[in-house]
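Help wanted!
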Amino acid sequence: MGTASRRQEFLSGMRDESPILLGVIPFGMIFGALAITSGLSTLAAQAMSSVVFAGSAQFIAAQLLGADTSGIVILMVVFVVNLRHLLYSASVAPHVEGLRPGWKLMLAYLLTDEAYAVTIAHYTSQGDARARHWYFLGAGLTLWVSWQLSTAVGIFIGAQIPRSWPLGFVLPITFIALVVPGLKDGASVAAAVIAGALGLAVGGLPYKTGIIVAALVGILVGMLVEGRKR
Amino acid sequence: MNPWLTMILAGLLTYGIRLSFIALRGRITVPDWFQRALRFVPAAVLSAIIVPGLFDRAGTLDFSVRNPQLWAGILAIAVAWRTKNVLLTIAAGMLALLALQLILG
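Answered by r_m:
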């Protein structure tokens, strides 16, 4: 395997991740601003973006820290909100199985929603599979750098971000762009529709536990639809 | 608990979740049905975040036809379906939302 294909994979990962930044950058800016208004220090707000590096969990953790919530409660909430990453980890595991431990440790750190969605689509596409961890690294690092910089901008401009900005909407739109092109058969459409409908129905469950319940049922329905065709 | 300690533990917890299966793979045997289930992970997890997000307006669910997020979301789904272009989908969705907010108020 040549250096050329590694570089090509790395650059492809960067390229495919970059349109998503249109959604990620405003989200990071809002986090920076929100963390400061919640009472976190500039340093703590910036550090959270690399220490935790998980958008939704950071939003909730910053607000809870600002409200003097007990540490144990915050950890429980972060655990539940990030539990979906367990599914991502299981999903990419077969593709990174042969890599050295150092690679696995690094790629696990970069396993966010946005890097996962782009990378898994690449892993399951046709072509030479040997250099694809470089694609993962390219996509993951692009997201990481953007997240750090947009957090810093958010901290800097702080409360100047208008409250009327519909920023809660950036995330669902970004995910639509990532999910819809991958719906290539009835089984995956069924999984998406059921998980989406259930996500709404059980959305009232505390701290996003509904996402996990809805996703598991969606996965089950997808498998049942797939099984019928066999 | 000190806020810094809480943050560091939250980071370790998140990292542990992300590393879990990546590290365990090869040491534990995964059943066949589990392998088949993984294909549906992206569509199921992200859809479970998308749909509530279309109805959630500043913390309350808005099921009315005057909810601009709903229409912008439907447009984004159509654009994503036809073009498979990420940038175009996000841009269309956000522009549609801004325009609809002006019209629907």
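OP: Thanks! One thing I noticed: Chain A is about 75% helix and 0% strand.
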